[in-house]
Amino acid sequence: MSEKLITIATFSQAIEAHVSKTKLESEGIICFIADENIVNMNWFYSNAVGGVKLQVKESDVKRALEILHQKPISVDFVTGEAEKEDEGIFCPKCGSSEVYYEKFSRRLVFASWLLLGIPFPFFKKKWICKQCGYEGKI
Ligand SMILES: [Zn+2]
Questions:
Q1: 31 vs 44, which has greater pLDDT?
Q2: Domain boundaries, the chain
């Protein structure tokens, strides 16, 4: 690694650093967490070493800061709330347009977030009608 690493953010909690790291990695930016072990071993060292540092390559600093200053990770993504799709899709049973496409299994996403530290999307591919409760393909 010839490129210099620049600290773009510091966190008092390792988990916060990991949330930001996941966010940057989802945008294709390679990043590193420094001093995490010191902070985990002895939390009051956190102040002494300046917290958990999030570092990126010098050439990625500008983009990384832009991404970090965007809106925080979508709550919808984390909780896996069903998203409403485009207009023009109707329930085959009752004809209602109140249909939702459930992208992620809420529980699995949350479990993976707890266990692996990332909200891994488990695709369910199921339509749900709000009117009659139909579930399945459209
Ligand atoms: Zn329906």
A1: 31
A2: 5-68, 75-136
Q: How far is the CA of 75 from the centre of ligand 1 (A)?
A: 27
63-82: pLDDT as tens digits:
999 888 875 544 444 444 44
- What angle (nearest 5°) sits at the alpha carbon of residue 40, between those of residues 38 and 41? 65
Between 109 and 135, residue with greater pLDDT = 135
The reported pTM is 0.45
Distances in Å between the alpha carbon of 69 and those of 8, 23, 66, 72? 11, 11, 5, 8
Q: How far is CA 111 from the centre of its chain?
A: 13
d(CA 84, CA 50): 43
* Ligand 1 centroid from CA 79, angstroms: 24
In one-letter notation, the amino acid at residue 125 is: K
Q: How far is CA 84 from CA 24, 34, 41, 124, in A?
A: 26, 40, 44, 15
Strand arrangement, sheet containing 52-57: 5-11, 52-57, 31-34
